[in-house]
Amino acid sequence: MFLQTARLLLRPVTAADVDDLFLIYGDPATNAFNPAGPYPHRLHAESVMGRWLAHWQANGFGNWRIALKTAPDETIGFGGLSLSRYADVEINNLGYRFATAAWGQGLATEFALRAVRCGFEILELGEISAVVRGNHLASRKVLTNAGLRYVRDIHDVPDAPPSLLYTLTRDDWRGG
Question: What range(s) does the N-acetyltransferase domain occupy (predicted)?
Fold first, then answer.
C-alpha cells in the first residue's frame, strides 16, 4: 500500500531498509523520550524489521518507509499503523520516528494525518490510538493536530512515569 501527501512518499518497509532503520532508531537524539533508548546494534534493527515485515504479511498493513517527494531515495523516517499491546491495552497503534534533519517542518503531522485517513478510509479501523511519553510535547502536538485526544495514563514501562494514551474513533474523525 503506497501512499503520498503533498510532500511525502510512503511505501511499505522492505528488508533493504534495515540500515536506514538502524540509523534513525539507533540515534540517541531520536530516542530522547524513549525509555528503552536507541537501538544498540544493527542486529536489533534486523529483528524489528523482521517483525514489521511479518505484521504486513499477516495484516495487510504496517510501517512505511517515509521519504520526501523531492528526494525519494533518501529515507527521512518510518511510521505506520500496527496492532500493538501497551500494558493492558490492545490498540491500532499510530507510530512514527523521523531523522533529526526532518524535524520542525510539519512532516510528522503531515504523515500522521495521512496515516489516520488511511486507517479509517482504506483499512476501515474503528479506532486509532497512540502512546506517547508525557514529556514529549512535540509528539503530543502531532497527535492532537491529527485529531487524537488524550484518554488516560497507562503504566507500560516499569519504574517510569506513565505514558499517555491518545485515541481517535472513526465516528469522531468523520464528524471532525
Answer: 7-149
CA distances from 9 to 14, 67, 96, 114, 154 (A): 15, 5, 14, 11, 33
Separation CA 170–CA 25 (nearest Å):
30
* Distance between CA atoms of residues 124 and 8, nearest Å: 22
CB 35 within 8 Å of CB 157: yes
Secondary structure class of 60 (helix, strand, coil): coil
pLDDT in tens, 30-75: 999 998 899 999 999 999 999 999 999 999 999 999 999 999 999 9
Using the structure block, give the residue that is written with the C-alpha cell 465516528. 171
- Domains of the chain, first to last: 3-175 (3.40.630.30)
Cell numbers for 7, please give them.
510532500
- H helix intervals, the chain: 18-25, 42-59, 107-117, 137-145, 170-175
Banded model confidence at residue 176, pLDDT cuts 50, 70, 90? low
In sequence order, the 6+-apart residues with CB closer than 8 A to the CB of 89 are 129, 154, 165
**Alpha-carbon span 128 to 148, nearest angstrom:** 8
